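Hi team,

Filling in the usual template for the complex we talked about on Friday. All components are listed, including any nucleic acid strands or ligand strings, so the model treats them as one assembly.

SUBMITTER: L.P.
PURPOSE: interface mapping
COMPONENTS: three
RESIDUES: 526
SEQUENCES:
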Amino acid sequence: MNHSDFWSMGAYGRYVWPCFGFAAMVLGWNLWSAQRHLAHARLRAQRALAMAESET
Amino acid sequence: MSIGPGEAFSLMLRRELALSFRRRDQLLQPLVFFLIVTTLFPLSLSVQLSLLREMAPGVLWVAALLASLLSLDALFKNDAEDGTLEQLALSGQGLTVLVMAKTLAHWLVSGAALVLVSPVVAEALAVPTEAFPVMMLSLALGTLTLSWLGAIGAGLTVGLKRGNVLLSLVVLPLAMPLLIFGAAATDRAISGTNPAGALYLLGALCVLTWTLAPFAVSAALRITLE
Amino acid sequence: MWTWFYRLASPPNVYRVTGSLAPWFLTLAALAIGYGTIAGLVFAPPDYQQGDAFRIIYVHAPSAWLSLMSYTTMAVAGAIGLIWRIKVAHAVSAAVAPIGASFTLLALVTGSLWGRPMWGTYWAWDPRLTSELILLFLYFGVMSLRPAFEDPGRGDRAAALLGIVGVINVPIIHYSVLWWNSLHQGATVAKLGKPAIDSSMLWPLLSNFLGFMLFFGAVLCLRLRGEVLNRERQATWVREALKP
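RESULT (copied from the run log):
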């Protein structure tokens, strides 16, 4: 398959590439969101521990 | 002094019906809503009779669904608020039996009422009279199923702050297949083709919910009451 | 007899193990998806009927499969949490929900973009598409129900029950192409016997299936850590776990 064929995907390019693009976005969002979720959870847990320790 | 499940069921049913008739305005609200919504369509879309006839199944079913959702919020709310629900759960009678009575009572005052009123509405939507029996049968089966789907939603959301929004969010995806088959049955009756397939599927959904949903609803209520 | 399982499924253990597993899953997923995507885009020959548009299958089919697998995992984990009262199971259910919803959305969008050139329409109210859309709404329902309760344990249990009620949709989606006259094509790979697809097209597809599943595992591990922490904030092991 030559270079221009690759990008045009036989005139279906405007359907194929957004699909792969959206797939990449979804995969990326999953990773980003999971990391963020963990970071928030750690933060909240640290705060809860700090509060518990300051009370004792 | 203990009574069997059959007697508990009928006692509960009579209680529910008595309570419902005492709050007559709450009783009429879904019915009035149903009537208004279905007449809004021919009023706002000044279309020919033939187009109205084509729209009729969808309009009827969406209106029935929304009208049922209105009355579902109150299914367990009043009892939950004054503590009756806890007493029912602790009563030693299977919660499942009591829930069945409650749901049947709910259907009798909402779904059954909708079915009885539907010919009037169908007339306004230019549905041919020959299609009425199938339409009413499909609405009956559909609303029977809907009462259970709604009971699951009501059981899960009882006592929550934005409970009725969540109830709709929970019930609507479950109700979509029902909507599809119900509208299909009515549509086929109107166009003259055989509605048996859709009616069988509606019947199957009805039986499925009547056998399985009571357990789901009592499980949901136990979660709420813990 | 079950003590080994309870020890394995204990929150500190799960927190530790998911931390070590995640990078492995992620690396393997990257390799599998990398090969699958590149081979699917470049080396697989164009389809006889669909031309190059068929290449969408390399993201559409794995995401659709994952949408179903995720919902099933979410429902089963919820059931385990309800029946045996294992908090970690509820944590798994909560972690899976957004992942599954995102893959359902991906399946719907890629399917829609594939449908436009093939069927002439971005959408059709056909049994498979409709039931997949219902699946997305079911995910949203579960994800909205859980945080609505003041008591998080109650929220977990209610969400678990709703997940179980909705699981009936999963076989409907899968068998819809068999039971009804559907616009959507029938099973390509999940057929016993010879799959209805050429091997040069098949291997990248299988690789992407595997890759997406490994990716699911990786993201689940990451999310599960947060969910476990959220359910165990006051426990003593948390202090140790948060140190580095």
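MY TAKE: Helices of chain A lie at 3-8, 13-55. The CA atoms of residues 22 and 47 of chain A lie 37 Å apart.

Thanks, L.
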